[in-house]
């Protein structure tokens, strides 16, 4: 790179590149038809965040209705539509694409030192499919929406009079293909486009996580597509597959559905774990603890994820033998999850920890995921699950994992790579305040729901017994605090685009390849192929005051 | 701390239901104490790891905070074999123990004792019907204290789920198959005050009225329970004869509606439409039975059934004897479930079918002016 002494003479980051990926082409079409993975990643990010706003508004409406038993401001049918829309939007439009398609698309090729993903056109196509899926969801809203729950359980979903069931099923079907294509693209990219010198075990852990995720996406999503197609066939053509009135079996539907939707939980959480590995290592500025254990635990989780779907069906009428087997296998997921958490905590030990916004999100993840993971024990244990099944305990558990872990990691990753994506720094102080608000609001909202559930409050309830009201009120207040935190986040992030300080190439002191190209990266990512080193070797990074960022200074004797 | 309290209260639980705690609601079944102690142990594990992880995280972040501009530490270990082994094997052992105890408790929940008292349960959008062996029916569940009770359950339309938090039991009701649930509660609740009894919830989403399928579960001492079921089974006796066919008829017909339509639709059994004409020598009386005989060949003075009423009663009490051509022998006997007065009500309804809604079986006329005067008599 630059000169050997501690102070490089003229840091390149002081003069922002006039030709970066944001300025390379201009106009609407240059975005919507771009083959550049970075632009596709940015468009995904914007779309996902917009959907998050929509899903969040539905959540707030649901929470507000639950302030009092009986009617607060909407009727039961509207409530049923709202909680269904909240779930469906958050799962299919937000969390599943959030990390792989949005952040992954931007970061993966840069981390590999590559120009783009293996199939750029397929990549654009999968974004267009996402748009098509989102449009179907909007069409469904216009045609009468749907009140089936995001799980589409039969025979309710094939007999309900809500008019928007078919459009949304078509939408989810299309979104599934968007997800499959992204997964295929990532698998091929990681196999084929790793630069010379980057062996599997010199890959950043985020790539291991994306790779495991991509495997699940490709293998599990087709099952969801087929299942939902069968639901549509039953609804349209009255062919009895799941409806017992026509000779079908509703429990079969649940098997099909969870065969996808349980692995889907890991499509959400495994890439989140990858982000946390990056955040914890980079902001602790030290070799990650137990690299191989973290890498292999991602793969282990991906494999186990296919074998545990039956734990969603402990009270469904599935045989006791099956329940026993699924309970035993479900516990196995706890082991690699625990291994990861302990390795992350040990990475903090004797590190050089910079406590900034992305790191704060990383630490929030550690605590929220610990709670989310450990309450999984209550639900994998058969006799406690019988009591807790389909209560708010389950609602709280999966919100700790899907929101407290997956989405918090997504927001942490957004802050981590925001300077790289936009070339701007955000207001660090506001970032920390917003993260704290989200963390407090989240726990107030959802820890209360553990207690609601263990006291017997069933989920998906419009009306409830008066003794549950105090918990519901606390939970709703928590959701408002959380909303405040996210609103603040939106404000300072938008503000940073206009008035934020210019970002240096390496604001945090990261050692993976994306920190070696400028912020924002040039159109082709790297002017010359970067040299691959240990992704977690921080010993050559030095703080440069003039650029307010880190620069790599190769020690004279370090050539191997 | 609260969990400790849970543990203490559990120890005193033998003489009555366990009172509500920080985590759990009132516990009033044999399963409840099992589930609660399991919850207590898992909570303990959860708190232990949560506190450990949080304390370590906060401590490390504070202790190893980095001052901008200083050199990074490089003395942190990057792996530790024994440690990795410990936190792989440790959680594994905990999981195995949890699995085994959860499994044992679950076997108890799923294995009803042989001598259990059976109650038939039907869930529909949006309510429950509980049927007792003596023919009594109710909308709320009433069970005898100190006796294992088994619910034999089915759903009429979509998935439902029967959840009684105080007993810590739950089971889905699936259309097209029977599922069961059993429990035993030793603690009578009474059923006179609105606060008496336990909650019963539907926990499988089923549409508009999902959250209003909550009912009460009353536990009565055996003698009271017997008295209640007897009274409940004999509700017919309190209806005056002249109001019988329109008051009791539709209520009883609710048990026939799944197989016998009123509007001529062919169901599992023949429709009631025109039935009285058929059996009393009018239109359709040459309709055939399996085996060749006809209505008019079987019913009438000097024949097997002297009157049409005789034939109807025989078909309800002994449905398999003569099968209408084209229908199988699937109807259960209602002997012991519908008494003579009930038969009278059904026959009365059959005679005046045009007064009833052909879809729902509801009586179409407003109660005649005679009704109030009749009760005034």
Describe the structure.
The complex is a heterodimer of chains A (560) and B (377). Chain A has a single domain (22-552), classed as Up-down Bundle (Cytochrome C Oxidase, Chain A), CATH 1.20.210.10. Chain A has helices at residues 28-32, 37-65, 76-111, 120-142, 156-159, 165-192, 205-237, 250-284, 291-304, 320-332, 334-348, 357-380, 382-388, 392-422, 428-454, 469-499; strands at 541-544, 549-552. Chain A is 63% helix and 1% strand. By secondary structure, chain B is of the alpha+beta class. Mean pLDDT of chain B is 87; it is low at 1-13 and 370-377. Chain B folds into three domains: 2-67 and 80-110, Helix Hairpins (Orthogonal Bundle); 117-233, Immunoglobulin-like (Sandwich), CATH 2.60.40.420; 236-368, Orthogonal Bundle (Cytochrome Bc1 Complex, Chain D, domain 2). Chain B has a five-stranded mixed sheet with strand order 3-2-1-5-8. A five-stranded mixed sheet of chain B has the order 4-10-9-6-7.
Quick one: biggest sheet of chain A? 2 strands, antiparallel
In the CATH hierarchy, the architecture of the largest domain in chain B is: Orthogonal Bundle
Separation, N- and C-terminal Cα atoms of chain B:
67 Å
Overall, the morphology of chain B is elongated
CATH superfamily of the largest domain in chain B: Cytochrome c-like domain
| Fraction in helix of chain A | 55-70%
Largest interface, with Cβ-Cβ < 8 Å?
A-B, 92 and 87 residues
In angstroms, what separates the terminal alpha carbons of chain A? Answer: 17 Å
